[in-house]
Amino acid sequence: MANEAAQEAVDVVCPGCGGSSVRTVQQACAEERADEKDDWRSGGEPERGSLPDRLAASPGSTDAFDSFLHFVEGTVIAGLGVGLAYTGTRQDNPLYTVGGVLWAVILFAVTIVVIRGEARERDVVNVGEPRAERMRRAAYHCSACDSVWCPDGSEWQGTLTPEQFKKLMWTTAGYADRLAPDDKAREATVPAEALPRTGGQHRHA
Ligand SMILES: [Zn+2]
Fold first, then answer.
1. Are the C-beta atoms of 156 and 198 separated by less than 8 Å?
2. 92 CA distance to ligand 1 centroid (A)?
3. What is the pLDDT along the chain (205 residues), one digit of tens a residue?
4. Ligand 1 midpoint to CA 22 (Å)
5. In angstroms, what is the span from residue 6 Cα to ligand 1's centroid?
6. For residue 36, which of 51, 26, 21, 58 has the smallest C-alpha distance?
7. 10 Å Cβ neighbour count for 2?
8. Cα of 17 to ligand 1 centre, how many Å?
9. Distance from Cα 16 to the centre of ligand 1, integer Å
C-alpha cells in the first residue's frame, strides 16, 4: 500500500489542468513556510491568506500554558477583591468588605469559565485533528491552477479549491465552527460529489 502510494507520487499530474507542477500539500506548505520564515511573528502562526493558512488542518487551539497564564491573571485580579475585603474588615467598612468579596467571587468564576472553555476547545481539536491530518497527508496541490485533490480518491473525490478543502477537513474533524470570520473557507461550499461515500453524515458540509 505504501509502495503503491510512493510510486503514484512520482508521476502525479494535476487532474484540474493536466500540469505537473504538483506537490503534496505537506510539501507545498513546508516549502512556503520555509520561504516566509523571516516574516513570521514569534508565535509561528501562518499569515492569513498564505498557503499554509489556506490549507491548515486545524485552528491551533489555545495551548495549556496560555490557559495557565489566564488562570494566574484571573486569580491575581480576583485577589485584588480579597485585598479590598480585608481592608473592609480592618476599617469596619462593610461596603469594601461586600464589594471585595463580590469582586473576588465573580472574577474567579469568570476565570474558571474561560479556562474550561479553552479546555473544551482543546478537546474538540485533539479529537478531530488526526482525521483532518489524514486528509491533509493524502492531498496534493497544483501551484498552476491552485487545485487540491486526493490521487487515489480514498479521502474525497475530484478537485477542490484550497478553501473547499479546508472547509471539508474542518467539517470532517468537527470544528468548522472555528473557522475565523475573515477566513474565505468559512463561505466555501464543498461539492456533494466530493464527499467520501462512507462519510454520509457530513453531507451538510
Ligand atoms: Zn493544475
1. no
2. 77
3. 444 444 445 578 999 999 999 999 999 999 888 877 655 544 566 777 899 999 999 987 678 888 999 999 999 999 999 999 999 999 999 999 999 999 999 999 999 999 999 999 899 999 999 999 999 999 999 999 999 999 989 999 999 999 999 999 999 999 999 999 999 999 999 998 887 665 444 444 4
4. 7
5. 20
6. 51
7. 6
8. 4
9. 5
